[in-house]
Sequence to fold (102 residues):
Amino acid sequence: MSLEECTSLAAILAELTVARERDGELLTRLTRLLNAPSSDLPPHLAKVCAQAIELFAEDAARFLTTPHWELQGERPILVAQTPDGAERVEDLLGRITYGIPA
Fold:
């Protein structure tokens, strides 16, 4: 491995570390939001968040922010921004809850 490749690898690793820290901070902020009164959220989004919390407990924020293949690689929290999208995420959560395959 050349010196240039090592430098590039070091830069990539540094960026990955920063991204992981940023993702951790975002998860913390989202967890706080999910634990706030649901009146702060639109009703369709509050319902999705409540289902995610019921199913995943402290990992709800991670589920909501992780791209999911059944949502065409989109993050559930982003899909759920609209009532139709929220219904898609609710369906996904229901299938996970009852172990129904896609």
Notes: The radius of gyration is 17 Å. The longest helix spans residues 3-34.
